[in-house]
Specification:
Layout lengths: L2 E13 L3 E8 L3 E7 L16 E7 L7 E7 L11 H17 L7 H13 L6 H15 L18 E4 L6 E3 H4 L7 E2 L15 H18 L8 H12 L4
Parallel strand pairs: 3-5
Antiparallel strand pairs: 1-2, 1-4, 2-3, 4-5, 6-7, 6-8
Length: about 240
C-alpha cells in the first residue's frame, strides 16, 4: 500500500500533540486518510489547508489501516485566495462535498481533474460559481450518477432542452415538459455546452440541480445531509445576488 501521488488536501484535524490526520484527494488512488507526523507545526500548517496541492508519499501496512504520509507542497495553493472570502467559501464547500461524496480508497481520477479545474477557476470571481456547478455534475458522473442532458427523455429531441426530470436526471424539452413544469428542475443553458453564456438565475438553477441529485443519490443513501459548507456557500451567493 505504498505510493506517491499528486493530491489536494480536503481537510485536516489534530491527532495527538503534534500530528494531524488529513483527508487527501489523490489523482490515481482516490480519497485517502493519512496521519502526518508534525503536521501541527507552524511550518506545515500553511500547506495543510483545504485546497492545498501536495505530492503525497503514502505508506500503509494494509488497505484497512490508517496510512501515514509525507507531504510536499506544490505551488502557492489557497493562499492566493486569502483576499477573496467568497472564493474561500466556495473552496470550503467543494472540499466538503468531495470528502463527503467520494468513497475512501476508490480511484476517481475524473473527480481529481474536476477539483483541479475548479481550483484554477476560483481566481475568476465572475466565473467560478458556474464552474462549481460543473464540478458537482462531474462528481456525479464519476460516481455513476451522471445527468443525461443529451436529448429529451420523452421525445428524443436534442432541441430546446430546458428542464430535467428530478427522478431520472434526464433532460426534458420545453414542449414535452410544459404540462409538468412545476415538478421539473430548470436546466440552465451553460450546462449544455461551453458556448452558452450565463443568464440571470442560471447559477442558482444549476446549484439546485446538482444539489438535488447529490442529495438523492449520494448523501441520502448515507443518511447524511448536504454538507453545511455547501449550504453556507449558496446562502452567501444568494445574499450577494450572484445566483
Amino acid at each position: 500500500m505504498d505510493f506517491t501521488d499528486d493530491a489536494f488536501v480536503l481537510s485536516a484535524r489534530a491527532h495527538g500533540d503534534t500530528g494531524v490526520v488529513v483527508e487527501l484527494l489523490t489523482e490515481e488512488h482516490g480519497r485517502r486518510s493519512a496521519y502526518v507526523a508534525g503536521g501541527a507545526s507552524r511550518k506545515m500548517k500553511p500547506f495543510l489547508q483545504a485546497g492545498a496541492r501536495v505530492t503525497a508519499d503514502y505508506r500503509a501496512r494494509t488497505s484497512d489501516h490508517l496510512g501515514s504520509a509525507r507531504l510536499e507542497p506544490v505551488g502557492e495553493g489557497p493562499s492566493a485566495l486569502f483576499d477573496d472570502p467568497m472564493a474561500l467559501t466556495g473552496l470550503a464547500a467543494a472540499a466538503s462535498v468531495a470528502q463527503g461524496a467520494l468513497p475512501e480508497r476508490e480511484p476517481h481520477p475524473g473527480a481529481f481533474l474536476a477539483f483541479e479545474a475548479l481550483m484554477s477557476a476560483f481566481a475568476l470571481p465572475e466565473v467560478w460559481p458556474a464552474i462549481f456547478v460543473r464540478f458537482e455534475a462531474g462528481l456525479l458522473e464519476d460516481l455513476g450518477f451522471g445527468l443525461d442532458l443529451s436529448r429529451c427523455a420523452v421525445t428524443g429531441s436534442m432541441d430546446d432542452l430546458i428542464w430535467v426530470s428530478p427522478r431520472t436526471g434526464r433532460a426534458v424539452s420545453r414542449d414535452a415538459g410544459r404540462p409538468y413544469a412545476d415538478k421539473l428542475l430548470k436546466l440552465p443553458p451553460f450546462m449544455l455546452g461551453g458556448q452558452a453564456g450565463l443568464g440571470e438565475g442560471d447559477v442558482g438553477s444549476g446549484l439546485d440541480l446538482t444539489g438535488h441529485f447529490l442529495e438523492q443519490f449520494v448523501f441520502h443513501p448515507q443518511n447524511r445531509p448536504i454538507p453545511p459548507a455547501r449550504v453556507w456557500m449558496v446562502d452567501k451567493l444568494r445574499e450577494q445576488g450572484r445566483l
